[in-house]
Task: inverse folding
């Protein structure tokens, strides 16, 4: 039953700013007790608990399990009755990158908050007398038409392979559940058909859900793109490589060390992946305060990037990586590029990619490696390009995945079938929310058509 | 007014409806075609089974009669599905058909306020505006007035039975159909459809060879259905199992042309979960044999019921294929199998109270609403009777929820989704089934039965004592340690049963078996039960937001077109029901809630 229940006691959250990378994102939270619940995740929890309405507080949001800081944030709090919804509310201002926002959502879910349904903030506002009926109607009308559009869009997008794939998995689970429900709905001695536990069917479904989940990163990669940062010491050829990747002269190239003093951002595509490419100020000890600031920004960019190209001048005799470069080189998201191979006398570091940014020798191999790295952890399933792309799809598939795993565990522990059925129903509910609800009628239909039962 | 209430028909629905009405203090007349057929078990001689057994116990918990009737007339008792799913296990009993009917009739006769009259209702009396029922007109010309009418016509309204090419206007073999009422309802404007079901042949016990069959005895202890009847001591008879074979199937295949179904005589839809033998042979050609349960129809009768081979093939074909079965070679057929087709009312025309939307004070229950089965009929009869009475007292109707009973699921399904085949209850229809075990029906429903007026102080007291004992057991399991672990944690393990604990905690032995089992299941399922409870609580909030039946959807801005159509047609009783109508969107529900609370707001602050 994937129906909403409009329950005003739940604490709900939603992203108020646009979904995508932006400098600042705003997450709204509403519900009685939300300040107290949120304070348990907040580094300055005491301050928050004591604070007056309409005040803003700085602190870190902490993952309750790992106790690690997820992000630095500003929180505005609104006490009873004095917010948009008329309920106790919060507004979280956080860094606007998608990975960060998702991490915060995860922490909120752990704390029992749920993501709001379309129009739910307005719905609450109306219920608490904060907006009048016409305002509420207007919003609902928009939600309704939007959900229609979104629905048809989603269906259109799903129509292709993903929809079919989820449907196929769903049918497998329905088949499995039917075998179990049959045994719960008919007497033992009334069934003469084989009723082995449908372990293979469930395992098969689980496998497919898992590999679909693996495509999430890649799906997001194509829809949202990623950040690639060029970094390294001065004069190694970062700007030259930047221009080569962009196929235009965007960044100034010169033999003077420290030419690039602040970062330059440009958009490009590699094999269809949208990329934000950053040329940065070379890393070195500098007395120049402007350059120092540039280097500080370089470090910030490296932190937020999906991939770093660490460019090294391999024509320098006896070249050694600086300590900072050594740490960077070891990170998983780093590719070491040994540039200027055309100058001969090159000592290519182990595991690095030789390149001449001048002659483009080695460029093709490097490009391939970049694409491969970005797609890492997300093998294209079977050549067909079925990928999941939204956080919602991922959430539902995760739910299905967990439930299927439970059902197999319970079978191993010899728990009774009526409990196992709960998990399979949960899996179906999750899959159904992506590709059409499964009703108890559908299960019965399956039983009647596959098994000969009934006295 | 001649009576407060009139009940049409004294089948399983009519019995419960009339008893409830009379017990709640209303002068009630039951008009039924034949007093010798009150509570007749038309088909299989058994009551209960998976989900159905739960329903019988729900009826009992609310203050109905069915559990008493079967407890006093059973000739075999079994708890089904002990192994597969303790939470969905259920009781089933074989009934002595004659005693069952006899006891039902005696019970009605003994009931104060209840009057019995043999006749057939052919039409309804309406008020001037034609929107309210005021009584009935019978075949013999009686006009009898009443404030409310409950219709329970079963398989009799324009009933037709079929055996090969033989067709007769009957509701059961040997009993005439009730002709006229169906046309009257159509004239009044009800949507009336046709459904079909069937029954197998009855054969003579002394002509059967039981050595060639497998015996199926009942449980040693007859636990019974009612929460009140303590000990049941009744004679117990066995059932027997045999199988069809390829020869049987060949005979059926070769003579399919004698079937009224395959010949197109029958238009009504039959139940897929309970196909006739000819259906099974056609749809599952790979199957080399089908099971037949040979069940006694009672103590003082030779008739045996051939469960599993319901048929409407020609009589000579029936005889031939029955004789091809091991153990039945010499079987004497006493009554042939047949199919019956009858009028039913599309239940979307009902409120969850089982009152029709078109005619005020007119309630419908039982097979007439598109269900099949004694238990399904009986529980609807009870609810219709209760609600008709509540209406006479100007009280709110009783609407059970999907999370507190199978009865709630049954009625909600009927009035929200409708049905176009005979609807039978299955546990899988109930999303909260782990919370709806048969042994907890009293906990769930007896307080409601008391509130309605069918359960006494005494019943409530008995329930209170039971709850207290359960608490004591729970406490005991939580406090006692076995080794380093709490007893309750030990019991949570799948391979440990409460019997294993009695050795360690002897004081457990002082409690009744049923209470120990109940505590064990409560504990083992607690995680899941809590999960379902949480879901149920949320849903119940929406169930509690009532939509007035006069509510006008046409003027509401923002509703989707389909949502508006469906809501207008079905007139859901609550926001909860509205949310289950297919085609109604979540945003429709939101806007509906906005509008419903507007009325309140304008009046209040
Ligand atoms: C041939 C056959 C096969 C069946 N097969 C199955 C099956 O496979 N599985 C299953 O679960 N159930 C089966 N049943 C159904 C089961 O018998 C019914 O579900 C159950 O009896 C319904 O109860 P009821 O009270 O609604 O109607 P009934 O038991 O049919 O009782 C209706 C009563 O109302 C009386 N009546 C009807 N119309 C009028 C009128 N106008 N005026 C006065 N009195 C009237 C009738 O005489 C009858 O006594 C079968 C029934 C038949 C006849
Ligand atoms: N021979 C040769 N020269 C190169 C190559 N790549 C870059 N250069 C030269 O090296 C010098 C530095 O290049 P840049 O691209 O400006 O280097 P940078 O890393 O951006 O330097 P900063 O911005 O100062 O940090 C320029 O004179 C380039 O022409 C190469 O592959 N081969
Ligand atoms: Mg540069």
Result:
């Amino acid at each position: 039953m994937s129906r909403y229940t409009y329950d005003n006691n739940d604490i709900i959250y939603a992203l108020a700013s646009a979904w995508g990378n932006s400098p600042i994102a705003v997450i709204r939270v509403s519900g009685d007790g939300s300040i107290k619940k949120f304070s348990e995740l907040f580094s300055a929890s005491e301050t928050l608990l004591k604070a007056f309405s309409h005040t803003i507080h700085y602190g870190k949001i902490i993952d309750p399990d790992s106790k690690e800081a997820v992000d630095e944030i500003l929180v505005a709090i609104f006490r009873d009755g004095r917010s948009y919804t008329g309920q106790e509310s919060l507004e979280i201002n956080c860094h606007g990158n998608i990975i960060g926002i998702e991490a915060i959502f995860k922490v909120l879910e752990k704390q029992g908050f749920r993501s709001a349904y379309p129009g739910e903030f307005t719905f609450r506002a109306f219920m608490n007398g904060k907006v009048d009926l016409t305002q509420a109607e207007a919003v609902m009308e928009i939600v309704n038409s939007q959900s229609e559009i979104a629905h048809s869009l989603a269906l259109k997008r799903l129509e292709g392979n993903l929809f079919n794939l989820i449907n196929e998995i769903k049918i497998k689970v329905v088949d499995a559940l039917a075998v179990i429900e049959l045994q719960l709905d008919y007497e033992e001695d009334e069934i003469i058909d084989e009723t082995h536990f449908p372990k293979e069917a469930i395992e098969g479904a689980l496998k497919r859900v898992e590999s679909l989940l693996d495509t999430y990163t890649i799906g997001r990669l194509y829809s949202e793109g990623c950040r690639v940062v060029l970094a390294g010491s001065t004069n190694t050829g970062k700007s030259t490589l930047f221009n080569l990747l962009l196929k235009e002269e965007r960044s100034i190239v010169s033999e003077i060390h420290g030419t690039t003093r602040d970062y330059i951002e440009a958009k490009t595509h590699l094999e269809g992946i949208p990329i934000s490419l950053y040329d940065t100020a070379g890393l070195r000890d500098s007395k120049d305060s402007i350059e120092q600031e540039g280097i500080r920004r370089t470090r910030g960019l490296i932190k937020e990037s999906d991939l770093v190209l660490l460019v090294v001048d391999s024509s320098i005799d006896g070249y050694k990586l600086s300590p900072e470069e050594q740490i960077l080189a070891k990170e998983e998201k780093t590719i070491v590029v040994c540039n200027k191979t055309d100058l001969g006398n090159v000592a290519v570091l182990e595991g690095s990619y030789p390149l001449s940014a001048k002659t483009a020798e080695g460029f093709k191999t490097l490009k391939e490696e970049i694409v491969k790295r970005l797609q890492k952890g997300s093998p294209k399933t079977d050549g067909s390009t079925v990928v999941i792309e939204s956080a919602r799809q991922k959430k539902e598939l995760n739910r299905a995945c967990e439930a299927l795993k439970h059902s197999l565990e319970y079978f191993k522990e010899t728990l009774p079938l009526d409990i196992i059925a709960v998990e399979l129903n949960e899996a179906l509910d999750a899959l159904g929310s992506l590709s059409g609800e499964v009703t108890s009628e559908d299960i019965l239909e399956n039983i009647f058509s596959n098994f000969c039962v009934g006295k | 007014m001649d009576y407060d209430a009139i009940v049409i028909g004294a089948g399983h629905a009519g019995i419960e409806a009339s008893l409830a009405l009379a017990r709640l203090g209303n002068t009630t007349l039951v008009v039924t075609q034949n007093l010798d057929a009150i509570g007749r078990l038309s088909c299989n001689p058994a009551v209960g089974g998976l989900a159905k057994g739960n329903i019988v116990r729900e009826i009992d918990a609310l203050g109905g009669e069915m559990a008493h009737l079967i407890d006093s007339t059973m000739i075999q008792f079994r708890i089904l599905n002990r192994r597969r799913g303790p939470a969905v296990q259920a009781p089933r009993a074989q009934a002595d058909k004659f005693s069952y009917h006899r006891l039902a009739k005696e019970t009605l006769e003994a009931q104060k306020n209840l009057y019995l009259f043999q006749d057939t209702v052919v039409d309804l009396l309406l008020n001037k505006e034609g929107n309210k029922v005021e009584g009935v007109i019978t075949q013999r010309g009686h006009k009898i007035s009443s404030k409310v009418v409950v219709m329970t016509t079963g398989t009799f309204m324009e009933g037709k039975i079929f055996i090969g090419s033989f067709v007769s206007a009957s509701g059961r073999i040997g009993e005439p159909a009730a002709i006229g009422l169906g046309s009257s309802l159509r004239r009044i404007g009800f949507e009336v459809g046709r459904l079909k079901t069937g029954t197998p042949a009855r054969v003579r016990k002394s002509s059967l060879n039981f050595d060639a069959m497998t015996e199926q005895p009942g449980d040693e202890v007859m636990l019974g259905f009612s929460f009140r009847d303590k000990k049941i001591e009744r004679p117990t008879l066995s059932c027997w199992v045999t199988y069809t074979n390829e020869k049987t199937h060949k005979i059926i295949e070769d003579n399919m042309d004698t079937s009224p179904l395959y010949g197109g005589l029958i238009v009504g839809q039959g139940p897929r979960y309970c196909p006739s033998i000819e259906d099974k042979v056609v749809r599952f050609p790979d199957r080399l044999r089908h099971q037949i349960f040979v069940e006694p129809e009672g103590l003082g009768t030779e008739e045996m019921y051939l469960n599993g081979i319901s048929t409407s093939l020609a009589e000579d074909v029936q005889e031939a294929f029955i004789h091809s079965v091991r153990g039945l070679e010499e079987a004497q057929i006493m009554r042939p199998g047949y199919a019956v087709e009858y009028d039913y009312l599309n239940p979307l025309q009902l409120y969850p109270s089982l009152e029709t939307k078109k005619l005020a004070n007119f309630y419908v229950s039982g097979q007439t609403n598109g269900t099949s089965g004694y238990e399904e009929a009986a529980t609807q009869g009870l609810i219709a009777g209760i609600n008709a009475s509540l209406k006479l007292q100007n009280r709110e109707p009783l609407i059970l929820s999907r999370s507190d009973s199978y009865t709630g699921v049954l009625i909600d399904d009927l009035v929200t989704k409708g049905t176009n085949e005979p609807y039978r209850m299955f546990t899988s229809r109930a999303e909260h089934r782990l919370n709806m075990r048969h042994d907890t029906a009293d906990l769930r429903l007896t307080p409601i039965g008391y509130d309605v007026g069918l359960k006494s102080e005494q019943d409530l007291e008995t329930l209170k004592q039971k709850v207290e004992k359960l608490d004591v057991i729970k406490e005991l399991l939580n406090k006692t340690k076995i080794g380093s672990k709490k007893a309750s944690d030990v019991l949570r393990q799948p391979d440990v049963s409460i019997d294993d604990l009695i050795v360690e905690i002897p004081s457990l032995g002082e409690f009744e078996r049923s209470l120990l089992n109940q505590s064990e299941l409560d504990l083992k399922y607690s995680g899941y039960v809590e999960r379902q409870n949480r879901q149920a609580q949320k849903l119940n909030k929406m169930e509690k937001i009532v939509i007035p039946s006069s509510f006008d959807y046409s003027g509401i801005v923002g509703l989707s077109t389909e949502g508006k159509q469906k809501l207008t047609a079905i007139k859901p009783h609550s926001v909860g029901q509205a949310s289950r109508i297919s085609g109604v969107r979540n945003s429709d529900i939101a806007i509906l809630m906005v509008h419903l609370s507007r009325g309140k707001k304008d009046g209040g602050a």
Q: What stands out?
A: Chain B touches chain A through 68 residues (CB under 8 Å). Residues A 238-239, 251, 259-260 surround magnesium ion (ligand 3) (CB under 6 Å). The longest strand of chain B covers residues 143-151. Chain B has four domains: 3-196+342-452, 202-340, 457-538, 544-605.
